[in-house]
Design a protein that fits this description.
It is a single chain. The protein is mostly helical. The chain has a domain of 239 residues. The protein is globular, with a radius of gyration of 23 Å.
Amino acid sequence: MFKIKSVISPTLIEALTLVVAIILMISVSIVKFDAVPHLPILFAILLLICYGLVKKISYRRLESGLVEGAAAGMSAVFLFFFIGMLVSSWIMAGTIPTLIYAGFNLITPSFFFAIVFVVTAIVGISIGSSLTTVATVGVAFIGMATVLDLSLAITAGAIVSGAFFGDKMSPLSDTTNLASSIVGVDLFEHIRNMGWTTIPVFILSLIFFGILSPSVALGEVDKIALFQDGLLATGMIHWYTIVPLILLFVLTILKVPALMTLAISSASAVAISYFHHSYGASEVFSILFNGFKSTTGIEEIDELLTRGGMESMMFTIGLVLLALSMGGLLFTLGIVQRLLATVEGLLKKVSSVIAASALTAISINVLIGEQYLSILLTGQAFGSQYEKVGLAGKNLSRVMEDAGTVVNPLVPWSVCGIFITGMLGVPTLEYLPFAFFCLLSPILTVLFGFLGKTLTYTDEKSVER
C-alpha cells in the first residue's frame, strides 16, 4: 500500500482534521455505543470519498484507491481462511482438547498467569506467529481459565503478551524479517539488539503476572478434575493428536510458507481424527467451513470446543478489507504522506527522532490498524533521519518492532485486535490493561532514547540527545 501515489497534497490542517474526525468516529462508536468497528470504518471511508469529490478528484480514481488498499490485504485474507480451518480441524482431531488436558496437568493455579505468559512466549518463538499461537495454545488457556473461574481479561493479556514476545523475537516471524530487511540490518543482529529492550520488559511482565496470579483453592482443584474427566469422556484425548502441532513446528522451522503450513497441518488433523471418530465427507466439509460443534452435554466443554471454521473468520476478513480500503484512500488523498512529512521535518535530536518514529508506528496502528504498514512506513519515513543524527539502522528496526509490531493487538479495530477478540472471546479493551509486554515495550524504547542508553551510533562523534 505504501506504493500508492497521492493525487493531491492536502494542507496540514485538512489532514489533521480528517484524521482526528476518523479516530473520533471509530473510537466513540466502539467505546460509547458498543458498535462493531465495520460500520464506523465504512462511514470514515464515505467521509474520505466526500472529501476527495470536493477536491475535484474523480470517483473512479477514489475507487481505484479503495481497491489498491484492499488488495494489500489479500494474502492475509487467505491466511485467515486457513487459520479458521486449522482451529476446527485441530478440535475434531483432538489436538486442542489434548493440549487443554495436558495443560491442566502442568499448570498450577497459584502461578497460572505467569505460566501462561511463559508458555505462549515459547510457542510464539517456536512458530514465529502470534496469531497462530493465540488461535491454538491461547484458546486452550482461555478454556482453562474459564474452568478455574479466573479472570479472562488477565489470561488474555498474558496470552497476547507471550504470543507477541515470541513473534517479535522469533527469526521465523514475518514482522521480524520485515523490520530487519527494511533498514538493511542482519536478522540476528536485529534480534540481538531488540534484547536490550525486550528482555527487561519480559522480566517486568513476568513479575506482574506472577503478582496477579491467584492462590490455590480446593474448589478450583476440584473443577480441574471434573473438567479433565469431561475431556476424557469425549474420546479425543490421545498422544497422537499432537502430531498436527509437531508438524506445524517442523514446517515452520523448514520455512515452508505459512499458508501451506496451515493447510498441511489441517489436512493431517483431519486424517488423525479418523483414528478415534469416523466422519463422513459431508461432515468434514461442514466442520471446516462452519466450525466444530461440541455436543458433550457439559456446558463449559461445549462452549470451549464449539469454534473454528472458515465462516468464523468472515467478521475479521470483512474488517481487514474495510480497514485497508480506508488506508488506500488515506494514501490516495495524500493524508498519510502529509502527516509523515510534517513529523519528519521537526526532528533534530536523537531523542526526538526515536520518540517521533515510535509515535508514528503507534499512530499508523491506531489510524489504519495494520502492523505491517506501521513497520513499512516508519522505516521509509525515518531511515534518513536516523542517519542524520548518527544512529545505526538497527536502532530504527528495534523501534519499529517495539512500537509497531506489539501495539497492533491493543487497537480494537486493528487486524490483530479483532482476530484475538474473535479467537479468545475477550474484548480488546478488556485485556488491554493486562497486556503488559505490549504496553511496556514502546515506553521502554522511547525512555532509552531519551536516556541515550543501549543505542548504537554509526561513529564515535558526540551527538546531541
